[in-house]
Amino acid sequence: MKYAVVTFTQKGDQIAEILATSLNIDLYSKKKHSNFDFAKVSKKVMENYRGIIFISSTGIAVRSIAPYIKSKDLDPAVLVIDNSCNYVISLLSGHLGGANEFALKVSKLLDAKPIITTATDNLGIYAPDMIAKDNGFVIEDLKKAKDIAALLVEGKKIGFLDEKGIIQTPTGYSSSLENISGLMYISSKDIINAKLKEYNVPTLKLIRKNIVLGIGCRKNFSMDKMNHTVIRVLKQYNIDIRAIKSIATVNVKKDELAIKALADYFKCQLKIFTTEDIKKVQHKFSGSDFVEKTIGVRAVCEPCVELSGAKIMTIKMKLDGMTLCIGEV
Q1: Dihedral sign of CA atoms 113, 119, 123, 126 in order
Q2: For the chain, does the N or the C end have fewer beta carbons within 10 angstroms?
Q3: Which residues form the domain of 32?
C-alpha cells in the first residue's frame, strides 16, 4: 500500500526520507514543492490514500482532515509525527482504518513513542470493531459497536456468543450470559434468535461471511429478477445478505450481466469454474440433458458450490430460468 506523507519543514522532509526507506510513500512537501497548496493537498490525500502521515502539529493535521471525515469504516488511517520525531500519534481511524497498528509500526521505524488514545486498547480490551476486522466479519451497526465498546470501558459485563463456536471468548467479554449489560454475537443469520432477544440488553451482531451461492441461469437473464429472487430465497432461509462470501458459476456464464451485478450488489467475490472442473464432480448431483447440450455440463449451481470448498446447505433450486444452491464454508 502507498502512503501519503505531508510535511511543512526541512526537518519534516528529513523524517520523511527515513520513512521512505521502509514505506512506499508519496511526499507532499511545502518546502520542496513550490506549488504546494494546503487545501488541495488535504483534499487529495484524504480522498486517495488509505494511510496518511502528517509531520506537523496535531492542530494542522486536524484542520486538514476535518472537512473530509466520513465514518470510521470509511476514513483512512491518519498519523501525526511531531517535528522533533519524539511521538507518533494515531489520530484517526485507529481500529478499522488500522491507524493504531500503523502507529506502532512507524514508531519502531523512527525509534519514537507511539501515542494511542483508544480506550479499549489502553485497557487491554478487544474492541468489537477490531474483532470484526481481524476475522473478516461485517459490523451490523457501527453505533451498536460503539455502545458495546463504551459498556466494556465502563467495566460492564458483556456476553459473547459465537453461533458456530469457532471464536473463543475475547478478553473483556463473558461466555456466561447471566446478568449481562450487553451482548455481542457472531452469526450469518438474518433474524436474531428469540432467546437472545429475551435478555433485553444492547446487542451487536457481527456477521460471518461464510455463505457461497452457486448460480446458473439462462442467457441474458434479468438483473432485477435475479437480485429479487436471490434475496427472497435468502430471507426464506434466514440468511443475512451481508453474509455472502462468494458467488460461483461456470465459465460459460462469466460475462452474464445478472450474475456480475449480483456479485457487485453483495460486494463479494465471483468465482468462475471451467466446464472441465465441473465435469469432475457433476456425477454427484442430478443433471439436465438440456443444460449439457447447451453448455457442455449437466449441472452448474451444486458443483460450483462444492468446488468452492463449501458444504451444501440446499439442493438445487429451480427458480424460473435460474438455478441456485446455497453452501457454507
Answers
A1: negative
A2: N
A3: 2-117
